[in-house]
Amino acid sequence: LDFVEHAAMGILPVLKKLPFFKQQLAETTAYVAETQPDLVVPIDYPGFNLRLSRRVRKAGVPVAYYVSPQVWAWRPGRIHRIARCVDHMMVLFPFEVDLYEGVGVPCTFVGHPLFDELRTRKPSPAFRDGLGLDPATPVLGLLPGSRLHEIERNLDLILRAAVQVKQAMPEVSFALPLARESLREAVESRVQAAGIEVPILPGKASDVARVAKAAITVSGTATLELLHYDCPMVIVYQLNAGQEWLKNRLLTTQWVALVNVLAQREICPEYVVAADVSEKVAEDALSFLRPGRRRKRCLTAMANLRREVDVKGSHGVAADTVLELTRRSRAGDLVAGG
Fold first, then answer.
1. What is the pLDDT of residues 7-61, one digit of tens each?
2. What total number of domains does the chain contain?
3. Which of 27, 241, 251, 334 is most buried as measured by Cβ atoms within 10 A of its Cβ?
4. Where are any strands of DSSP class E within 87-169?
5. Is 292 helix (H, G, I), strand (E, B) or coil?
6. What element of type H or E holds 273?
7. What CATH number does residue 290 fall under?
8. Which pLDDT tens digit goes with each residue over 267-317?
9. Helix then strand then coil, % of the chain, to nearest 5
């Protein structure tokens, strides 16, 4: 099942979709119970898939779950419920293996598929020339997110920091990749209000990451893309007061940005707060745009982390794991709940 078209966030949207999800859960459980496959492989989407996993295991079918819920970030107690729902977990990040093996769940680190995708992307010819940039011109990437609510929440802060960077370093140029054309109006209106020149580049996130000397980005998978291209970054996510209150009480990791979570220390500065931190963001961005010890330290830490997590062939590793588990299931060596 592919639930992309049925994705829902928030109480009311989920309630409206509830009859659909309940029907799909019942139909899928019945189908698995009737056909008795060797293995069920749910992918991500824990709200639905963990319920499905629990039911199909009761029907005697082993479960190999692909992409763990982020139990390391919030509600860590969920891992015990997950352990009762799955027979094998395939995870994207190496530190997750110890979490699952610690509660008795066999686990395989397969790597993040984003890195494989990035390796297939070809650089746009003469991208820098197309922007009219001299090879010596430092470029600061501005990555406000791929969703409208991320842009509405974060772009003003990013642009305030960019203005301060421009004042301190007049030779800097900016580049802002646009995830979808439907976001252009929201981006352009904010860029105009900021009063600085920022090229808006549809579908050019990888090219921006390649040529940028540094970046200001929202937290999320964009940080992994910048990691892949060795681009030092300052990570932001603007919260309101209520969200900051919840974050301080519910979040169980010291960091939010994936690069810092993976490194288990802050290798790139992050600001996930309600306050206006544009001055600090600008200072950090300038320290990465200029040669010096801080830029060098960040690049070294990113290179070390990339060697750990930027593995090749993640889908192949996952497929091999599934085939091996299927073989064991057929041989009777892998039993649901066993």
1. 555 556 666 777 888 898 999 999 999 999 999 999 988 888 999 999 999 999 9
2. 2
3. 334
4. 88-91, 107-109, 139-143
5. coil
6. strand 270-273
7. 3.40.50.2000
8. 999 999 989 999 999 999 999 999 999 999 999 999 999 988 888 899 999
9. 50, 15, 35
